[in-house]
Write a structure and sequence with these properties.
This protein has about 675 residues and is mainly alpha-helical. The chain has 3 domains: about 1-20 and about 270-455, no CATH class; about 45-220 and about 230-250, no CATH class; about 475-665, Rossmann fold (3-Layer(aba) Sandwich), CATH 3.40.50. The chain has 26 helices and 5 strands. The relative contact order is 0.10.
């Protein structure tokens, strides 16, 4: 860990980008090419109607991917967090639950797809002309859903177990086999779209088989039959950790369903008909995904570089990394823009031939729909950059803005005005608007980096005293912002003659991680509600997870070693299995919290209530994320007390008496 952190903070940025981004790019490109290969061979062996059929089936595959990534990425995060807490048994349970739930859901979804395939295809814009092809292709693809889902779930877990090369190898093996089998089944055996589907599920089975074989080779855990028994609380936790990946993939499904139906509607009113637009746009989106895969790979690969150096307040390195990433991404998107504008006919020809209308619409689609694809070189890296530095709201806005906020409304509005050309024009409109938002946020953040400003909150002096009791006592204090809970903790420590632990954790974690104390103070115990959208498919543990793991280790060591009062940091949950721990929650009414916020923390009276609610919400989100419990649930604590009832002095006296009485009873 130390070695890697030193590299992130000292190695040349160019070398770091090469080291971390290239594997990421390869994995993403393999995923993109996996889907494109089928369409190339189908286009030449069946025709563009075959490709149109695969495009209306593709959303079903995306739904499968959404669920499998939710369980896979969720189990991966659970594995990493529990290993960080030194809880291997719990880590194994999380992995086991992720796998078994993926198995169950995959079988259920397979059955639903096979039974209701015609109705599902209608939802995704299937026309009467495409239906026969789509049913033949979709039926076979649906049979392979369990292999695809379980294999993908395991792939995520294998990466988290420390074997990214094995995970990539299993994916590449499937992709290579698919490329070999496609022409055999389509051209040699003359099986058309059915042959392409068979080649796909054979390939998915190989990836599935390789990943299943890895289960016995887990490095960090030992998976047993007991771990594979579904447990609702663990399944909920795993699913919550992976919900970001689910939302991301399902947003694409929603976009594709809307787009396909609009293309059918307005295509029927044009000379192109409905089938040509559905086919062409599907191909255009998959080609553009190659561009996006490269850009995402570059930016996602540099997440640890961004995150570490931002946390360590090495802002020059952050700016240098951002400059290089944006520069490379813009160059790549510019090259793609030139290709899309100058040789669209050559690009579409890779996927087979078509009549005059087909070629005409293909050229229109590339040149119109991808007119501002160059903007992706800014918008995509910006979203990943904000994710890496912990700006969850900004990252979520950028992640969702292009697809949900801009693209779908633009397609609906412009389509109603300009027909099929309006749907195509929605692409550059969405890209342009997303680019403007990303640029504004980046400019503001860069100015912030130049000034080196990071806000600080709640700084108080700490007290070190000699122990006045020979009894081993640990008290955890959770508190609403402005309730006086921190001061109550200090009074209790003074009265009992034991150590108060709060800011000491920040200093210690800074020493062990290399992150600055300012960064730790501003990122611990705080989690935006939108942060769940930023755990994405391509990132491992972020700095917030690392902070939680480090602080958990320190809290356990301190509680084992000496009597103490520990403020915040989910200490009540971390020490839930330890004896002689008294868990306290302090709250207060808003009027008194505002008064303390103004008088003690210097917050303007007009802003105090908003700031209090904001910080309490961040603390609640943080607690929920790492404990899967509600922060204000009184069952988490031994005592919940309103500091206004008796005043902080008497509240401290009351808690001291309670702790000592409790200790006497246990002797």
């Amino acid at each position: 860990m130390e070695k890697e952190e030193n590299i992130l903070g000292k190695e040349k940025i160019g070398k770091l980008i090469k080291k971390f981004s290239i594997p990421c790019i390869i994995s993403l490109l393999v995923n993109s090419l996996y889907n494109i290969v089928d369409q190339i061979f189908i286009g030449w062996g069946v025709g563009y109607l075959g490709n149109g059929a695969t495009n209306v089936v593709f959303p079903l595959t995306m739904i499968c991917l959404a669920f499998s990534l939710m369980f896979g990425d969720g189990a991966s995060s659970y594995l990493s967090l529990k290993l960080g807490e030194k809880k291997k048994d719990e880590a194994a349970k999380g992995v086991g639950n992720g796998i078994i739930v993926s198995v169950i859901i995959s079988v259920i979804f397979c059955a639903i797809a096979l039974i209701f395939l015609p109705q599902l295809l209608n939802i995704f814009g299937c026309t009467d002309v495409l239906k026969d092809y789509a049913l033949k292709y979709g039926t076979i693809i649906a049979i392979g859903f369990p292999f695809m889902m379980i294999g993908t779930t395991l792939n995520s877990i294998i990466r988290a177990d420390g074997s990214p090369k094995y995970a990539m190898t299993s994916m590449v093996a499937g992709a290579v086999l698919n490329t070999i089998l496609d022409p055999i089944f389509i051209f040699v055996f003359k099986m058309g779209v059915q042959g392409a589907a068979i080649a796909t599920i054979f390939s998915q089975f190989i990836t599935f088989l390789l990943n299943v074989m890895y289960i016995k080779k887990f490095k960090s855990i030992k998976l047993t039959k007991e771990n594979l028994k579904p447990k609702l609380n663990i399944t909920r936790r795993v699913s919550a950790l992976g919900v970001s990946s689910f939302i991301t993939q399902m947003s694409f499904v929603f976009v594709m369903a809307t787009e396909n139906n609009l293309l059918v509607k307005y295509g029927m009113e044009s000379k192109f008909g409905p089938e040509i637009p559905i086919t062409v746009i599907g191909i255009v989106m998959k080609i553009s995904q190659i561009l996006n895969s490269i850009i995402i790979g570059i930016a996602a690969g540099t997440q640890p570089v961004f995150g570490y150096n931002y946390g360590a307040r090495k802002f020059d390195r952050v700016k240098e990394t951002l400059k290089i990433v944006l520069g490379i991404s813009v160059v790549i998107s510019t090259i793609a823009f030139i290709l899309f504008q100058t040789i669209p006919d050559k690009l579409i020809s890779i996927f087979g031939s078509g009549d005059e209308n087909y070629m005409e619409f293909a050229c229109l689609a590339f040149r119109t729909y991808l007119l501002l694809c160059i903007c992706n070189g800014i918008q995509i890296p910006a979203g990943i950059f904000f994710q890496a530095i912990g700006k969850s709201i900004k990252s979520a806005i950028l992640s969702l803005s292009r697809q949900i906020l801009f693209l779908i409304p633009s397609m609906i509005i412009l389509g109603s005005i300009f027909g099929i050309m309006g749907v195509l024009s929605a692409g550059p409109v969405a890209d342009g608007l997303a680019f403007i938002v990303a640029t504004i946020l980046l400019i503001l953040e860069v100015k912030h980096l130049k000034q080196g400003e990071i806000s600080k909150q709640e700084v108080e002096e700490q007290t070190s005293t000699e122990t006045k009791t020979d009894k081993h006592i640990v008290i955890t204090i959770s508190r609403e912002y402005g309730s006086g809970g921190r001061y109550i903790g200090k009074l209790i420590a003074d009265k009992l003659g034991i150590k108060l632990y709060d800011k000491e954790f920040i200093t210690k974690v800074a020493e062990e991680t290399g992150l600055s104390e300012e960064y730790i103070e501003n990122n611990e115990q705080k989690r935006d509600i939108l942060a769940v959208l930023n755990n994405g498919y391509y990132s491992g543990l972020n700095n917030s997870d690392e902070l939680f793991i480090k602080e958990s280790e320190l809290i356990k060591k301190v509680a084992d070693k000496e009597s103490c009062v520990i403020v915040g940091r989910c200490a009540d949950f971390i020490l839930k299995d330890k004896e002689n721990v008294t868990k306290v929650f302090v709250y207060s009414n808003m009027k008194n919290k505002i008064e303390r916020a103004v008088n003690i923390y210097g917050i303007h009276k007009n802003d105090a209530e908003k700031e209090i609610k904001k910080i309490d919400k961040l603390r609640a989100n943080h607690y929920k994320y790492y404990t899967d419990k509600d922060w204000k649930d009184n069952s988490n604590y031994d005592i919940c007390i309103n500091s206004d009832t008796l005043g902080v002095e008497k509240v401290a006296d009351l808690i001291c008496k309670m702790v000592l009485d409790k200790k006497e009873e246990n002797i």
